[in-house]
Amino acid sequence: MVSSYRLTKQAKMIKTDDFSSVFSFHKRVASAHLVMHYRPNHLALARLGLVVGKKTAKLAVSRNYMKRVLRELFRHKQHEVSHVDLIVRVQKPFNRSEYKQVQQEFELLITKLNQKVILNAQTLSSVNAAPLLG
């Protein structure tokens, strides 16, 4: 049983270099409202970064609401997420009336993300285990 659903300081991505390394890895999953960029890490936890641009929502109140919702959704699912650096980017603004839809999209994307990470890990291990032909 998980002892805490607290979002720790180590579970947050803040530095520009961390964001750049995830974006340059070029792996992502997307839905109508959200895009999740990810990169496997060697930590014992998933880390979260959020991007809500001014082009998406002009008002800071709206951007902060979206970040607050995404942070809360991640906090509840953080123990189910593979060990990745994860950047959630909002590509279509949402408000309180669309919360359930965004929550379902978030959960679906986490499931897709976990499947892709596991599949990539399996293919990497099978490639490394295959004998060299020569």
Rg on CA atoms, Å: 16 Å
Q: Which residues sit in consecutive blocks of at least 5 with pLDDT less than 50?
A: none
How many domains would you count in the coordinates?
A: 1
**What's the helix-strand series?**
HEEEHEH
| Biggest sheet descriptor | 4 strands, mixed
Mean pLDDT: 88
Helix share, percent:
40-55%
Number of helices: 3
How would you portray this structure in words?
The chain has 134 residues and is of the alpha+beta class. The chain has a single domain (9-119), classed as 2-Layer Sandwich (Ribosomal Protein S5, domain 2). The protein is 44% helix and 16% strand. The protein has 3 helices and 4 strands, in the order H-E-E-E-H-E-H. It has a 4-stranded mixed sheet, sandwiched between helices. Helix 2 (60-77) links the parallel strand 3 and strand 4. Helix 2 (60-77) crosses helix 3. The longest helix is centred in the last third of the chain and has 31 residues, at 99-129. The protein is globular and about 55 Å long. It starts with 15 loop residues before the first helix and ends in a 5-residue tail after the last helix.
List keywords for this structure.
134 residues; Ribosomal Protein S5, domain 2; 44% helix; 16% strand
Helix/strand layout:
Layout lengths: L15 H10 L2 E3 L3 E7 L6 E5 L8 H18 L6 E7 L8 H31 L5
Parallel strand pairs: 3-4
Antiparallel strand pairs: 1-2, 2-4
Brief overview, please?
The chain has one domain (9-119): Ribosomal Protein S5, domain 2.
